[in-house]
Each structure stands twice: as structure tokens, then as C-alpha cells.
Specification:
There is one protein chain. The protein is an alpha/beta fold. The protein is built from 15 helices and eight strands. The strands form two sheets. It has a six-stranded parallel sheet, sandwiched between helices. It binds 5,6-dihydroxy-NADP and zinc ion (ZN). 5,6-dihydroxy-NADP (NZQ) is lined by residues 39-42, 46, 71-72, 97-101, 103, 143-144, 146-149, 152, 154, 156, 167, 185-186, 188-190, 193, 197, 200, 257, 272, 286. Residues 147, 200, 204, 272, 286 line the site of zinc ion (ZN).
Length: 390
């Protein structure tokens, strides 16, 4: 294990079919006014909204509603949430939904008491709030597995007017105070979103795993998580109502991106940078945008980071190395990844997401590019990866 790091994750988790029962006692720690953020209506259709609002009422809370938090939440919607929170003197923000609602809630929590242009300060300049700034507490009731937003300080916001999607990972003051993870709540997630979530989880692990050359405990943890995800995803795709599989997917998602497996790692995240830009242009589900550029990206990275790709093939995909060169073993690992992606039903090209050749210049321009993982990409490399992903 090389490097120095600190690890602190303050989010309290409640997991399982009975986990919503813990909400009422958690609420006692906060004042009476709760801003309830949710999406486009799935929580009303599946009954989760009724369960949550009943508990809020029992706990004597005043509910201020902010529905319509869209998938890939926009800057315009962020402004609206900040305005509502300011007008209502909110004590707690409760996110009821997937990663979009959780991200959005943290973004509002950071911005309400910032005196200035929060978009410029937090997302464009990537700053954190000053020590003295008040931040609203956030609690999450997660309805979709994928992003890890329930236990991290990430907030991805899309400036739709400028076709620019950008994330800021705040410091741990913005991590949710608590998150409630009931796998049963994810059973109504549409098929495409379940699959997008599965690949998002896989890719979060890969973004952290494919870096460095030291023997690192984080990589062993990552391999275990990937193996679990592969087993669970196969079962969930066959039978989406398989509770065991869905619960493993949900728990894996949390550990894939709650900073643990990134400890002591340089990390990559360029698939996410390209994926975010593809998402801004196509509005495709986040995990799909990652899947669609991954084949071209990892083929490149493999050449530069061969030993780790050999290890990936052997430890994650059980590739037998007998009689094969390292390059052949690594290639077999990437083939196994691709076969699994096909089995899950993931897109392998950006064309499937609606991207066209004439968008490539724009997608490249809005991609944040930096040296990462095993590659030192330049914008022209991103253009090539996008062309290869058509
Ligand atoms: O709008 P609602 O009604 O909530 O419907 C949502 C949405 O249409 C639906 N859904 C969620 N739970 C459901 C459900 N439908 C039926 N039953 C349920 N139980 O699914 C759709 C997608 O939801 P969304 O929250 O957008 O998906 P996801 O969890 O993948 O979040 C995506 C956002 O998170 C960001 C992405 O960029 C994207 O903006 N990310 C956040 C990260 C973080 N905080 O660390 C990291 C990720 O890499 C990612 O960038
Ligand atoms: Zn992601």
C-alpha cells in the first residue's frame, strides 16, 4: 500500500427490507422543516412516497415538497431547490429517489447559505464551502442502486444551456447524514435503469482499480466487489424480482463508491469524464454512457497498464493463463467483460444512445481531460475513443 490518505465516512446506513423503520428515530435529530426532494413520480406510483410522508407526519415534521428532480439534474432545477429552501427556512433535506435526487439534495444543501454564485464557486472552480458556512444536513432514502451517492459527497449537475455536465465531490461535510437502503424499493426500477446502474457500479470499481502498480488491499476489495456484482447481475437480469441479487447489487453499489476502494489509489475516472459529456449530449442513462465508451477506452488502457489487466482477467474473470502471453490473458479479460456486458444487455456504442459523428467535436470540447490511470489522454485521443465507440 503506497501513499498517505485519510479515511472518514460519516454516513450512517440502514439496510434491508425493514430499514425504513429507522427513519422516525433519525428524524428526531433535526428541526421541524423538511424539504422533500423527489423525481418525476415513480415514488408516488410505487407507494414509497406515501410510506415516507406518513412517517414524516407522525414525527411532527412540516413537509415542503420539491418534486420533479429530473434524471441528470439541471442547474436550473438546482436554482429552484435553493430558492425553495431559502424561502422555507429548511432544517433537513430528505432525498427520495435515485442518485440524481441524492446528488441534487447535496448540491442544494451546499448552496442555500452560500452568498454568491454557487455554480461558479463549487462546480466550475471546484471549491468547497468555507469552514464557517452553514450547510444543510441531507438524508437519503434510496430507490435505485448505482451511483453510490447515498454514501459519498458527489454531486453531478448538468448545465443544459451549455450542454455541460460536471461533478463536484465535496468534502465529507456534505456526505448524507444517514441513508436508508431498502432493496425492495429498487424492484420497480425500469429494466434499462437497473442495467445502467449495474454498469455504473462496475465502472466505479474499475475507475479506481485500474491505476497504480503497488500491491494494494484496495484492489483485493475491488476484485471481491466485482465478483459479487457479476454473480448478482446475472441473477437479476434473469429475474429482476430476485431479492438476494438486488440486495447484493445495492450493497455493492454503496461500497463501490463510498471512498473505501479508492484508498491509496491514484484512480482514473476518464471513462466518467467522457461518459458525462456523452450524457450531456444524448441524455442517456449515466451507466449507459459509460458502457458505450468503455470498450474503446479499456483497449487503450490495457496496453499501458498490462499487469493490472492480466490480474483483472485472472482474478475477476477466472481466465486461465496457461500457454498464453500476458497480452493474450489481458485481452481475454476484456473479452469476458464485453461478453458480460452483452449478457446484461448494455449498449456497446454511443450510436445506440443517439450520438452521431457530427456530435463528436462538441462532445470532445465539453469533456474534462486530464492524465489519469494508465493514460495521459489529450483531447484528440478522446475524439478517437469517441469515433471508435460509434
Ligand atoms: O424521476 P423518478 O421518478 O425518480 O424516476 C427515476 C429516473 O427516471 C427512476 N427510478 C429511480 N428509482 C425508481 C425509479 N423508477 C421506478 N422505481 C424506482 N424505485 O430511474 C430513473 C433514473 O434515476 P436516477 O436517479 O437519474 O439514476 P441514477 O441513480 O443512475 O443517478 C444518475 C445521476 O447520478 C450521477 C449521474 O451523473 C447522474 O446525474 N452520478 C453521481 C455520482 C456520485 N454521487 O458519486 C457518481 C456517478 O458516477 C454519477 O455520475
Ligand atoms: Zn458513475
Amino acid at each position: 500500500m503506497q501513499g498517505n490518505f485519510s479515511y472518514h465516512n460519516p454516513t450512517k446506513l440502514f439496510f434491508g427490507e425493514e430499514s425504513l423503520n429507522f427513519l422516525k428515530s433519525e428524524l428526531t435529530a433535526y428541526g421541524p422543516k423538511v424539504l422533500l426532494n423527489y423525481g418525476s413520480g415513480s415514488v408516488k406510483r410505487n407507494g414509497i412516497y406515501d410510506q415516507v410522508t406518513a412517517i414524516l407526519r407522525e414525527a411532527g415534521k412540516t413537509i415542503v415538497e420539491n418534486p420533479g428532480v429530473m434524471s441528470n439534474p439541471t442547474l436550473e432545477k438546482l436554482h429552484e431547490g435553493v430558492r425553495i429552501a431559502r424561502e422555507n427556512d429548511i432544517d433537513l433535506i430528505l432525498a427520495l429517489g435515485g442518485g440524481s435526487v441524492c446528488d441534487y439534495s447535496k448540491a442544494v444543501a451546499a448552496s442555500v447559505y452560500y452568498d454568491g454564485d454557487y455554480w461558479d464557486q463549487f462546480w466550475l472552480k471546484q471549491q468547497n464551502p468555507d469552514a464557517g458556512q452553514r450547510l444543510l444536513p441531507v438524508g437519503c432514502i434510496l430507490t435505485m442502486a448505482g451511483t453510490g451517492s447515498e454514501m459519498n459527497a458527489g454531486t453531478v449537475i448538468t448545465d443544459a444551456a451549455n450542454t455541460f455536465k460536471v461533478g463536484h465531490v465535496f468534502d465529507d461535510r456534505l456526505m448524507p447524514k444517514f441513508s436508508i437502503l431498502n432493496p425492495r424499493f429498487t424492484m420497480t426500477v425500469p429494466d434499462n435503469q437497473m442495467k445502467a446502474g449495474i454498469y455504473d457500479i462496475m465502472n466505479h470499481i474499475m475507475e479506481q482499480y485500474f491505476s497504480g502498480s503497488d500491491d494494494n488491499t484496495s484492489d483485493y476489495l475491488s476484485e471481491g466487489l466485482m465478483r459479487s456484482l457479476i454473480v448478482a447481475s446475472r441473477a437479476a437480469v434473469k429475474n429482476p424480482q430476485d431479492y438476494e441479487a438486488r440486495s447484493n447489487i445495492m450493497w455493492t453499489a454503496t461500497w463501490a463508491l463510498n471512498t473505501l476502494v479508492g484508498c491509496g489509489k491514484e484512480q482514473d475516472w476518464m471513462v466518467h469524464m467522457i461518459g458525462h459529456s456523452v450524457g450531456a449530449w444524448t441524455h442517456a442513462p449515466h451507466g449507459y454512457t459509460l458502457a458505450a465508451v468503455s470498450t474503446a477506452y479499456y483497449r487503450r488502457a490495457m496496453k499501458a497498464g498490462l499487469p493490472k489487466f492480466v490480474r483483472f482477467a485472472k482474478n475477476v474473470w477466472n481466465v486461465c493463463d496457461e500457454g498464453l502471453t500476458d497480452e493474450q490473458v489481458a485481452e481475454k479479460g476484456l473479452e469476458a467483460l464485453k461478453d458480460w456486458m452483452i449478457e446484461v444487455g448494455l449498449p456497446l456504442t454511443i450510436t445506440e444512445l443517439g450520438a452521431t459523428a457530427d456530435m463528436i467535436e462538441g462532445i470532445t470540447k465539453t469533456t474534462v481531460v486530464y492524465p489519469a490511470g494508465y493514460l495521459d489522454l489529450k483531447p484528440e485521443d478522446v475524439t478517437e475513443i469517441l469515433r471508435e465507440s460509434l
